[in-house]
Amino acid sequence: MQQPDPKEIMILNRIVVFSVIVFFIIIAAIYLLFISGKTGQYSDFEDYIFGTYVRIRISSKINPSTISKAIFAEMKRLEKKFDPYVESSIIYKLNHSEDWVEVDDETLSVIDLALKIARDTEGAFDPALGRLIQLWGFSKFTEREATGTFTVPSASEIAEAASKSGYQKIAIDYVNKKIKTNGAWIDLGGILKGYALKRAYQIAKEFDKSCHGFVETGGQIMILGPKYNKTNWVIGVRDPRGQPGENITIVYLSEGSVATSGDYERFFIVDNVRYHHILDPRTGYPANKAISATVISNDPVIADAFSTAAFVLGEDRWLFTRTVFPKYGAEVLLVTPKKRLLRTDNFKIYEMSDR
Ligand code: ADP
Ligand code: MG
Hints:
Belongs to the ApbE family. It holds the Pfam family ApbE. The chain is an alpha+beta fold. Among the domains are: 102 residues, T-fold; 124 residues, ApbE-like domains (T-fold). The chain is built from eleven helices and 15 strands. The strands form four sheets. An eight-stranded antiparallel beta sheet has the order 1-2-6-7-10-13-14-15. α8 runs antiparallel to α9. The N and C termini lie far apart (71 Å). It binds adenosine-5'-diphosphate (ADP) and magnesium ion. The site of magnesium ion has 7 residues, from β10 and α9. Adenosine-5'-diphosphate binds next to α9.
């Protein structure tokens, strides 16, 4: 028999070793693809904004931290621009001027939208309650909470502030781009987080149209895209009388936004009475016909403002909420003071996991 050439054996060995390496690389790549498909490789960003937290969970072909930082910078810009109690802001200027004030396009459109929602909700959502919000101390909530300096204003103080409040007082001159507040103080606290989330979505999609994940700030979530780009996000709606983490229901969403307004977020207790930060414009006192209101909408501005409005309308005016809100793309879950759950017709659909 002819002896094999040692050179040929070496070449053969190299081919075998090479094939084995290639084989393992392919297996590893398939495994990684499988794993990343399962985990989505989200990266998280957390910080503080609007007196609460913001959490951004994002997966993108672009560096996610670049997107998160751009979103956070935009939120900071909005917080500064629209803070009614800081002298440098446009809202402060509007509130403290007796005359028409020229505003930029963004300010005009946000205030215009807030006034429209006020009309659509029969004034339950009112962006001109600044005087009352300041009187109650909710404009400086974090400091007051730290020092424990909450007091209940007197009935006459409330009546006085209420008489100088209300969205009907705000006038817009669309031709000259001017706004006049006529003594009322604008406070966009019930819509600003929604608007910030809308901007967050736009910014994320400008960087990478197919990015996915969500942005969450103080009880409101805006979805950037389905989980792992294919399944619903599972979102707990907090039990307003439970501990954080205890849910009253669960909703499944792959797009849009969900916002909850509750009496448990910002409140103080005097003589066993709970006073919280959502005011009934008709009385000037905290609204007490609901303990939480959750709204699902494709538009985060609608979700935010309509959840505040649904809370104010409460159990007494539920029929109005139930009939009118879905026309504006808002599906509602209301928790009454006795913890009864009231839902608009389509809300249930979001509670079904196997849609
Ligand atoms: P949160 O900010 O806790 O998510 P909301 O979205 O309901 O709650 O907004 C509450 C904020 O909106 C208050 O802190 C206040 O600035 C403002 N606000 C209070 N009452 C009303 C109201 N009836 N309509 C519009 N804004 C309100
Ligand atoms: Mg709201």
